[in-house]
Amino acid sequence: MRAAWIAGEILQAYGETVKDLRLVPAAHGRFHIYFDGELVLQHGHNPHTWPEAKEVLGKLEEWRKAHP
Q1: Contact 32, 41 (CB under 8 A)
Q2: What's the mean per-residue pLDDT of the chain?
Q3: Please, how many CA atoms are within 13 Å of residue 62, restricted to the half-sphere of its CB?
Q4: pTM higher than 0.70
């Protein structure tokens, strides 16, 4: 559920500029976020600590600046 919420936040922030967005869930609350085919964020094995949408959007913005 949290990954779906974060995906919605990403799509709301970047709208039609998103070419490829994948959130890949794994066991024990882990998930990875791929943006335009590149791994941007990995959420580790602690299911009690989740990245906030602001943190995820910040990581995406850093990635976008490094990949103009």
Answers
A1: yes
A2: 80
A3: 9
A4: no
